[in-house]
Amino acid sequence: xxxxxxxxxxxxxxxxxxxxxxxxxxxxxxxxxxxxxxxxxxxxxxxxxxxxxxxxxxxxxxxxxxxxxxxxxxxxxxxxxxxxxxxxxxxxxxxxxxxxxxxxxxxxxxxxxxxxxxxxxxxxxxxxxxxxxxxxxxxxxxxxxxxxxxxxxxxxxxxxxxxxxxxxxxxxxxxxxxxxxxxxxxxxxxxxxxxxxxxxxxxxxxxxxxxxxxxxxxxxxxxxxxxxxxxxxxxxxxxxxxxxxxxxxxxxxxxxxxxxxxxxxxxxxxxxxxxxxxxxxxxxxxxxxxxxxxxxxxxxxxxxxxxxxxxxxxxxxxxxxxxxxxxxxxxxxxxxxxxxxxxxxxxxxxxxxxxxxxxxxxxxxxxxxxxxxxxxxxxx
Length: 380
Hints:
The chain contains 12 helices and 10 strands. By secondary structure, the chain is an alpha+beta fold. The protein has a 4-stranded mixed sheet. Strands 2-3-7-6 form a 4-stranded antiparallel sheet, with no helix packed on it. A two-stranded antiparallel ribbon has the order 9-10. The longest helix has about 35 residues, at about 230-265.
């Protein structure tokens, strides 16, 4: 925790106490499908649901590193809750505060920050996950208003959202990202949400969301018409850093579970921690987890410093975070053997949850493409 100030350490202490008291007892219920709305409200009461916002709209006036620390600690007990929180905070509330209009900032953002309202980031579609610039949902001008039709897929909190940040094509398909507009839609009868059963991060209200002649005014546009790609990328870059933090939390929890299990599990007359292969597994897990911590924390500090390389480091944090989470949990589960494969062990849940970090907020294959594009610019 060498990068942490005393204030950051206090935040970690507070959130760990919150996690132990409120999240761990509910982790399996969330994993079985219970949407943790009450936990979001409790986070809002502590002003850490959207910690980077100013206090007058429900935040803590904190930095990006604080955001990352909250996500990391939540992910240790419930990666599902951490996923909901990071989307609600960085991709919705903070995004709207910086890029939305006065109504968004003064009326909607405080509701999201308090947990009184739930938000969803609606970009992905059945046709287009990785190729988001090819989305087919359309926004057409009719009689002085926008009419939006289309289908969104894999939308976290989609089942329960009160507000949807919807990205729609507002120009020709060949214009790709240059003809996408962001709209903030309040839930109403034109929005139909259908649940999607997922392998991990359950309880996140993941849904297919159909938009059927949804009406929107110019005041519902976030940013500028045909400027939605900027809004999407603003949220996605922070989302990718947050995925790195989720991976860090998963890896830390898996390492801890494996370490203490190895101390007490007896085989061939001694604790399995005395076998060199187990020691090597644990050492490898520790080294990779601490390396990831450095990347995630550094990227957070880069964002606050306005470093132009932040988007690059956000991709790196996501790539390494997801890979580390999957690999560390896999080794931890191997150490626990049959127990780790049972639902009695938290590793069974963490293993399922870890996998999606290689997929959501941009598949790792897309992340590699993006990293290479940044590399070309740096080496040009």
